[in-house]
């Protein structure tokens, strides 16, 4: 599986704005939480999961999300390719991160808030991996 952006939409009329995503299937979600970086220069990375999959959507503001597919969880190559996505709260796009990826999350605006959804409950499995933010020398 590869990461996929599930496009949402926005509708405006004289009553206001409606953001929606009718293509996103929530049936696998078991928990959710929000992330707010303390400043836009902060890079929250690298963290990921071998088994768990996640979905990200911007509740407010915008984010740059970088993903790397890990080749070896005990000793990953420092030269792995990364995929970069930008999501914002305007259309309620949802970024699906399949199992096997780590992520780096950076706010692009002050007061940005990211909703994170997972297909496992907290502590249901031991599946969290972290690497230093400067570990990878991306191609």
Describe what you observe in this structure.
This protein is 0% helix and 47% strand. It has strands at residues 4-6, 9-13, 16-20, 31-35, 44-49, 54-60, 62-69, 82-88, 94-97, 101-107, 113-118, 129-130. The protein has a five-stranded antiparallel beta sheet, with no helix packed on it. The chain has a five-stranded antiparallel beta sheet with strand order 8-7-10-5-12, with no helix packed on it. The protein has a two-stranded antiparallel ribbon with strand order 2-3. The radius of gyration is 15 Å and the shape is globular.
Q: What's the helix and strand layout?
A:
Elements lengths: L3 E3 L2 E5 L2 E5 L10 E5 L8 E6 L4 E7 L1 E8 L12 E7 L5 E4 L3 E7 L5 E6 L10 E2 L9
Antiparallel strand pairs: 1-9, 2-3, 4-11, 5-10, 5-12, 6-9, 6-11, 7-8, 7-10
Task: Give the key terms.
five-stranded antiparallel β-sheet; 139 residues; mainly beta; Jelly Rolls
Structural class: mainly beta
Q: Span between N and C termini? A: 21 Å
DSSP helical segment count: 0
Spatial extent as radius of gyration: 15 Å
Spans of 5+ residues with little confidence (pLDDT < 50)?
A: none
